[in-house]
Here is the input.
Amino acid sequence: TYINKLIIMTISLLICSCASNEAKREVIVPDGEPEWLYSPQSGCNEVKEICASGEGTNLKQSDSHARKSLASIFETKINSSFKFTKFNFSDSEVSEMTEMVSNKIDEDVSGILKASYIKERFKKDNLTFSLAAIDKHKSGTILRQEITRIDDEINHYFSRQNRLFLKKLNVLYHQRELLNEKLVIIADKGVGSPVTLSQINMIKFKSKGGTKVKVNALNKVPELFVKKVEGLLTDIGYKINAKKDNNYILNISYKEKEE
Here is the structure.
């Protein structure tokens, strides 16, 4: 009937109107201004690029701020990502390894950002605005190559099954995991690790392998001191052995210092 057709047409018009309003509601841009000023990624090809904007009183300043905004996307929160355990490492060792990984990640991210470029600029009210971008494919390739290089190192040292390389393996593992997080940002997909952190840290508790050494106390050396020396040797990959088939014998003596 005519009334039913009118109702259907009215409903259809309402649906179209709502859909149209939702599309318009996305970004409201004043006349004469680029959309990327309010939504940086809109100024880029989302499939190929990642973008960020910045402002300043001149072109040099706005370009710099735009690149800094781009860098903040890849900002690393080292402390929250690290899984070092005090059972395996001392506080000073954790601090040392954290700094090593942080420095390496900063270098890698800086290398990626060197390939960034300024896509557009805009001036308004004595201010300059810049839109910076990086190429997803090129950046992703750089990250994958570095992760592959690190994985080769991890496989090499892990195959040795020696506690001497425990610290190095932890540094390499955390470095590759943080780089993998950057790759996910760029490519929406990371690269699986060849070994887990648990597998790496289990090396410390494996009894096989390691150069055999016997600690021989020449005089009345306190037992606590002997145990401390044996513990240090164990931590760097030696196997303490009381039998005669040793690779080395370490003779230690003890003397009280006179004040």
About this structure: The helical segments are 2-24, 59-73, 78-81, 91-113, 136-160, 166-187, 197-201, 223-235. Confidence is low (pLDDT under 50) at residues 1-25. The first strand starts at residue 49 and ends at 56.
